[in-house]
Amino acid sequence: MEITEVRVSLRDEERLKAFANVTFDNCFVVRSLKVIEGPKGLFISMPSRRMKDGTHRDMAHPINTEMRARLEKVVLEAYQKELKGSGRNTQGGEPKERQ
User: What span, in angstroms and rounded, lies between the C-alpha atoms of 14 and 52?
Assistant: First the structure.
């Protein structure tokens, strides 16, 4: 499965840095991934829905760690590119690695 397009929409919130839409194989799109600033750096959050019991459930997500890592790398690279193109302060440049 190839990631063929990533579109990033920047946000000016404390933790929420951007929304992203990711297209796979030019034929399937997942919308509303979030770029979040956490205590250990940037990470992506998959689109989710609030359930009746107040918990959140991912609506779409990778089923293995390799795909999650690949998706996170591509989305965070697109985020950094969009951030630099917008002229906004990157607050230290490259995303920090999560541990």
Answer: 27
* pLDDT, tens digit (0-9, with 9 covering 90-100), for 71-82: 999 999 999 999
What domain range is 26 assigned to?
3-48+55-86
Residue type, 14: E
- Asked whether residue 82 is domain-assigned, the answer is yes
29, part of any domain: yes
Name the token pair of 95. 């995303």
CATH code of the domain in which 9 resides: 3.30.1120.40
* pTM exceeding the 0.85 threshold for the entire prediction: no
Within a domain: residue 97? no
Q: How many residues does the chain have?
A: 99
pLDDT at 99: 37
Contact in structure between 3 and 22 (CB atoms under 8 Å): yes
How much of the chain exceeds pLDDT 90, in percent?
83
